[in-house]
Amino acid sequence: MHPSHLSDEHLLALVEMVDTAVPIYKLRLTGGDPLVRPALHEFVGKVRKLLPKAEIALTTNGLLLSRQVKALKESGLDTMNISLDTTEFGVFEEIARVNAFDDVLEGILAAKKSGFRSLKLNTVLLRHFNGQSLHELVDFATDMRCELRFIELMPIGVASEYFKSEFLSADEALAFLRPYFGDPIPLGLKGTASRYLFQFRGKKTVVGFITTISEPFCGECDRLRIDSRGWLFPCLHDYDGLDLLSLWRTGEREQAVRLIRAAHTEKKTPIREWTSQQMVRIGG
């Protein structure tokens, strides 16, 4: 763990402050990849004790998952999202820039065997990388009995450099899939995902579309993010944030709670450009 990253004690103190200000019903560990944090399962266990009624979720790229999944489940992790942008070995290596496709597949299989009540696969829509093979991802998710989430590319951080050439909308993706699977059955919204039921080969699978760009859902968003330095961000568009760690260290807990509540209640459709900071700094 990098020296500037927060200890379990610090993170738990900040989570407790947020829960005091705005009761947490779901806490997601994301990044980057949370699995690089030493003894992540121990932290999950501490969060479970702090938030016994909340859903604890994890988003991971899956590279280190197979070795940790059992301990995470036993520590109280409820649900998991695993990133998988392609089922083609060569394309995977081109996107991830690492030869670890088999490790990710091993992690997905291990997660399935561990019996999580919800397991989703996250796919960022990329026109020239997976835009012509989306049906293969739906097939894979069906075989794995996982829900698939197609996520529109966002022009944040390094993605801003290739956003114009690679952006593929949810509507375009849905149109591409229809010749393969027919018209899906709309299931409505669940969280931020517009969900559809695909039926084929006697099997069924649910596919969700996260329409961050084509149909923004900012008006319904209630998320708050704490980064690895202890800063709170109400939105991915935010450049600044709130230094919660400093307030905690100086004993200004009541002031922090007031500021957290204000940050939550004043959330609105963003009017600024996308931030240039990296997604790994504040999570997805």
From TrEMBL:
It comes from the Bacteria. Residues 1-201 form the Radical SAM core domain. The lineage of its organism: Bacteria, Pseudomonadati, Nitrospirota, Nitrospiria, Nitrospirales. Its cofactor is [4Fe-4S] cluster. This is Putative GTP cyclohydrolase subunit. GO terms for molecular function: 4 iron, 4 sulfur cluster binding; cyclic pyranopterin monophosphate synthase activity; GTP 3',8'-cyclase activity; GTP binding; hydrolase activity; metal ion binding. GO terms for biological process: Mo-molybdopterin cofactor biosynthetic process. CDD domains: Radical_SAM. InterPro entries: Aldolase_TIM (IPR013785), MoaA_twitch (IPR010505), MoCo_biosynth_MoaA/MoaC (IPR050105), rSAM (IPR007197), rSAM_sf (IPR058240). SUPFAM superfamilies: Radical SAM enzymes. The gene is moaA. Coiled coil: none annotated. Keywords: GTP-binding, Hydrolase, Iron, Iron-sulfur, Metal-binding, Molybdenum cofactor biosynthesis, Nucleotide-binding, S-adenosyl-L-methionine. Pfam families: Mob_synth_C, Radical_SAM.
